[in-house]
Every structure is written in C-alpha cells, then in structure tokens.
Specification:
Blueprint (H helix, E strand, L loop, with lengths): L3 H11 L4 E4 L6 H8 L6 E4 L3 H15 L3 E5 L9 H10 L3 E7 L19 H6 L4 E4 L6 H13 L5 E7 H5 L27 H13 L3 E5 L2 H4 L3 H11 L2 E4 L14 E4 L6 H7 L4 E5 L19 E6 L13 E4 L2 H11 L6 H22 L8 H11 L5 E4 L3 H9 L9 E3 L9 H11 L5 E6 H6 L4 H6 L4 E7 L4 H10 L17 H7 L3 E5 L2 H13 L4 E6 L8 H9 L25
Parallel strand pairs: 1-2, 1-3, 3-4, 4-6, 5-6, 7-8, 7-10, 8-9, 10-11, 11-12, 13-14, 13-15, 15-16, 16-18, 17-18
Length: 590
C-alpha cells in the first residue's frame, strides 16, 4: 500500500532531486521507505548530524542550481538546522528542508515538550528561511511541495521548510484522489528571469563609455544566475579591472590580465589597492557586504557606480548607485554586452599589471619563507600545484578562506570553489565535501580548514570513509583559534581563550582520520609536505593531511605588519572602541 512518504519521494524525484541528505526519525520513516523504492532516481545520504545535512545539501545546490534537500525529524533533529539554513538564506542558496512533526491532533501538547520532542517548529523556521509551512492535510501536501520548490528557486533563491506531521506522512496515498504534478520551471534556480529596462541599460553603457578606469566586482549572484560565461566575455569587453567576492570566485579566470583576485580583507592585496583607484565600479551580483566593501569604505564618494542584482532591495542598501540595473545578472550582462563596443584603457591596464606584479612579489616572500612552523602560504602553493582544472576546493570559514583566495587561483570560469560566507560559520567544509562528492562522483574534492573549524564536524569523516569519497581534507593546525588570537593579541593583549592545545593535550587529526577509516598524514616540516600531499592526492578515497603552521600568520593585510612586529608592537589604549564601518582599507591602529 502506497503512503504519503511515497508521494513526497515521487515528487522529489520528478523535480530532479537525485540526493536527499539527512537523518531519519520515527516521524519521517515513511519518506525513507518511499525513497528506498526509487533508488534508480533518488538516493538518501545518511549523515551523522542534522547540522551537516544542511551543509551537504547546500553544496549540492550550489553545484547543480537545484534546491538542495535535507530531511530531519521533529524536535532535536529540527533544531540543529539553523546554521545551514541561515548560511543558505544569506548566500541565496535554494534549499528545501523536509521536517518531521508530531501528529496534527497533538498540536496543543507541543508546548514545553509535553508531547515528547515537541516545540513550535513553524515559528522557529519562519525566522531562518524565505518561508515555512505546516502541512494541514493529505490533500494539501502536493500543492505545498510545489510551493516550496517555487519559493526556494524564485529570485532571490533561499531555503524553505516544509513541516509534515507524522500522521500525514504515514497516511495512505490514494492516487485517484491525490494527484501529483510538478512545475518544471522550479527544477532549477532561478525560477524566473527578469531583465533591466532599456533606459537603465543605456545609462549604464554611457557611464561605462565615459570611464577611464572601470572596475567590476563579481559576487555570488553570478554563479546563482549561471552567468560565468557572459561575465568573462563582459570583463574582456570592459577593458578594465575585474575582482570578485569570495563566493564570486570563478566568475572569471583569475589567470586573465584584467583579473586581480578577491576583494576582501582576507583577499588580494592587488584587488584592495586597485579597487580604490577605479573611477567606475560595477557591483554585479554582489551585496557590497561588509567584507567585499572593505568595511563599507567602498565605493569611495568620488566613484561612479552601477549595481546589477535581481533583488530590488539590494540597489541602494549600503550606498546610492549612479545607475541601477534591476534584473537577472545573466540577462543584464547579455544586454550590456550587446550594447557596448570593446573598451580600451591601456594606461589603466598597465597600472593593473604593475600592482598585480607587486602583489605577486609579496606572496612569493610568504611562499618561500623557511620559518617553522610553516607559513600557510607554502602549504597552499603546494596544494595548488597538485590541483587539476576540474578539482573542487571547499573552504571552511575564517582564515582558511583567505589562504585559499590568495594562493589557489581560479584557473577557469565556473564553480571551482565553495565558500561558507552567507554566515561565515565554522564547520562547513567537511559536510559540504560529502554533498559535493555525491553530486560530482569521480571529482577530487579538497577541503581546507583550521584545526578549530575541523573539530566541529570531525564525526562526518566516518561518512566520507563509509562512502569512500575522493576527498583530501587539509587541516591547517596552529593549535588555536587564529582569528580570535589575532583580535585578542591586538586589542586586549590576552590570548588565553583562543588556545586549543595545552602541554597535556595535542589533538592529532591525522590519527583521528585513520581511526575513522581515512588515510592520515602528519606534516611538521617542508620536506614532509610534498610527499604527504602526493600520497593523499593519489589515494582513491578520503584522507586527512594535517600540517603544523605558524600561529602568527594571517591573511588579513591590515594586520600583517603588527603580527610581524610581535608582542612589543604598540596596542590600542585600554577601553578604546573601534567602529569597523569607520576603518580605512589599511587601518593604522593607534
């Protein structure tokens, strides 16, 4: 006898969902039963922790453009989803969460867990999703699934939660009474595309023609719109500077003469310096968020600006643009490309080359450093030398994002990197690698995480091992929370709460990987690094390469001088309050 779990599984399969990531519970067992009868079209990936199911689904969504689907049971399962859902919400990643619930006639017993594991899940999810719904009946379920996919994939994409009571999941599915169908437009984001109006396109073209030093900032919206091909063509036509946000990396190949890397305090020195010299800045699929806008010191008051975004609320949120192009990124760039002849700015191009060369010289000094423990730049350069063009790199939060951005170039346009920048929470890379490996079987996945971030989700290494995934997990181990140490050292002269090691405690992540079924490699010196990476890259399965790194190294350019000066460098006066919005790009902290 078919049940409503069969209906949900069937509709997911018809929406093209090949993978569901999650953790079963008694209230959602019907869904798993339905999936098990359709394994030729849809499979379930069992995670060790519901938090990680959302991150794995996030990776699937970013790589396919389809909504990532995760499933959790009522109560303890549901309340572990927020980190992944907020990441997806802020990063505009389409996601559908299938959430179990107590039976409908128990609704009055949910408060304070009178009915075991009960709480007000609908109110809870409303705050961290585009929208959430409680399914009230068997008849309503198919339409609510259609609504979930439409809302998740419509501009601006994001996560939704569909809360299905236990009695509805287990109810009989009478196919004569409860018909199903899907809206094929919602299989992939964006659900619909819009284009800027003609007069705004004309105004933008006129502004570009007038510019002497044009620049374009590509954000994650380029990938969301599947627009990397036209972004690359437009950057070439612009004849100026192209930089990206962290999530926008791969919008254009960073090997191109016009590309200067990542605009971010963690990113490229050349990008930071050159962005200030532009007379026109085009913000394309970028929110001009705190980090990409360098603590909102960009754009400068004298810079003309164009914004391109499918979300009307992004035009003018942190600055007033000279011209706003409201519409889908790909459609807008197509219109601009068609209306704009190739531009030439030889003096600006020469300046870009000059600054990039100086940036490369600075990076080379760090890569060639003989200091022990090793500088992370040296580790990243060795990783970059072994990466194939189709390999995927997944960054965890904090300093790892900067080390990757500075020393592992995007050699071609496309989704070669995944960054957790919607919320910037630690613990993204390991579960995201599981989602990526299942989505792209045969592709080598390389993760980079600090020892603090890696500790968050170390249990999911067992999932990588169980599924024999081709993942190289690089752990940059400095024995502390690097960002917190830096902040405390500069502002408070006290690093006690940042320490992750003691004389009696030295966690061995390579050994932990071995214990969970992976290959483990511990690296202390440069001569050990190459052989360890060679062995990990050659292994047809998951591995952990743990590298002891310099705990004073930071990718934040503003702070590098102070960390080199060491403990005797001048520090802020006690009680001084610093407003990040007022910082300059390279603050001279008193």
């Amino acid at each position: 006898m078919a049940h409503m779990g069969d209906l949900v599984a069937e509709m997911l399969a018809r929406y093209g969902v090949e993978l569901v990531f999650g953790m079963p519970g008694g209230q959602t067992t019907a869904l798993h039963d339905g999936i098990s009868r359709r394994t030729d079209r849809i499979r379930h990936v069992l995670m060790r922790d519901e938090r990680n199911a959302a991150y794995a689904a996030d990776a699937y969504a970013r790589l396919t453009g389809k909504p990532g689907v995760c499933d959790v049971t009522v109560g303890p399962g549901a309340n572990l989803l927020p980190a992944g859902f907020i990441e997806a919400l802020n990063a505009s990643v389409p996601m559908v969460g299938i959430v179990g619930e107590l039976p409908l006639d128990w609704l009055t017993l949910k408060e304070k867990g009178i009915a075991s594991q009960g709480f007000d899940q609908l109110s809870f999810f409303k705050t961290i999703t585009k929208d959430s719904w409680l399914v009230p009946s068997v008849i309503a379920l198919p339409e609510m699934i259609r609504t979930a996919f439409r809302v998740a994939t419509s501009p601006r994409p994001g996560p939704v939660a569909l809360i299905i009571p236990h009695d509805i999941f287990d109810a009989e599915w009478d196919e004569e009474k409860v018909k199903i169908g899907i809206d094929e437009r919602a299989i992939r984001a964006p659900f619909v595309r819009s284009a800027p109006v003609g007069r705004d396109v004309a105004a933008a073209v006129a502004l570009i023609r007038k510019a002497k030093r044009p620049a374009i900032v590509f954000g994650g919206g380029v990938h969301g719109a599947d627009a990397t091909a036209v972004a690359t063509r437009f950057a070439e036509r612009l004849g100026g500077l192209a930089v990206t946000s962290l999530t926008g990396r791969g919008s254009v190949p960073e090997t191109a003469a016009y590309a200067a890397g990542t605009l971010n305090p963690l990113g490229s020195w050349a990008a930071i310096e050159l962005a200030k010299e532009a007379d026109l800045v085009i913000w394309c699929g970028s929110k001009a968020s705190q980090n990409t806008a360098m603590n909102w010191t960009l754009p400068l008051p004298e810079q003309a600006t164009i914004t391109i975004d499918c979300d009307p609320n992004e035009h003018g949120r942190t600055f007033r643009p000279t011209v706003s192009l409201f519409g889908d990124v790909r459609e807008a760039l197509d219109l601009l490309e068609a209306a704009l002849e190739p531009q030439s700015h030889p003096e600006w191009q020469a300046r870009i080359a000059e600054v990039k060369a100086e940036g490369e010289r600075q990076k080379r000094e760090e890569i060639e450093s003989e200091r022990l423990p090793m500088h992370p730049a040296r580790v990243m350069a060795e990783v970059a030398a072994r990466l194939g063009e189709d390999d995927l790199v997944i960054s965890d939060a904090s300093f790892s994002a900067g080390w990757i951005a500075n020393y592992i170039p995007a050699r071609k346009a496309g989704r070669g990197f995944l960054y957790a920048r919607g919320q910037g929470g630690l613990g993204y890379s390991t579960p995201a690698a599981i989602g990526a490996a299942e989505t792209l079987p045969g592709t080598r996945i390389v993760t980079v995480a600090g020892d603090g971030a890696f500790s968050y989700t170390i249990g999911e290494l067992a999932t990588q091992s169980q599924r024999h995934q081709k993942v190289v997990n690089v752990v940059l181990n400095n024995g502390r929370l690097g960002w917190i140490q830096l902040w405390q050292e500069i502002f408070f002269k006290n690093v006690q709460s940042a320490l992750l090691e003691s004389q009696s405690c030295h966690p061995n992540f390579a050994a932990a990987g071995e214990a969970l079924g992976l290959k483990g490699f511990s690296v202390e010196t440069p001569d050990q690094l190459g052989p360890a990476l060679d062995a990990a890259f050659a292994y047809d399965g998951p591995s952990v390469v743990e590298v002891r790194i310099d705990d004073l190294a930071t990718p934040i350019h503003s702070f590098k001088r102070r960390m080199r000066e060491g403990a005797d460098a001048p520090r802020p006066r006690p009680g001084t309050v610093y407003k990040l919005r007022d910082w300059k790009v390279s603050p001279d902290i008193p």
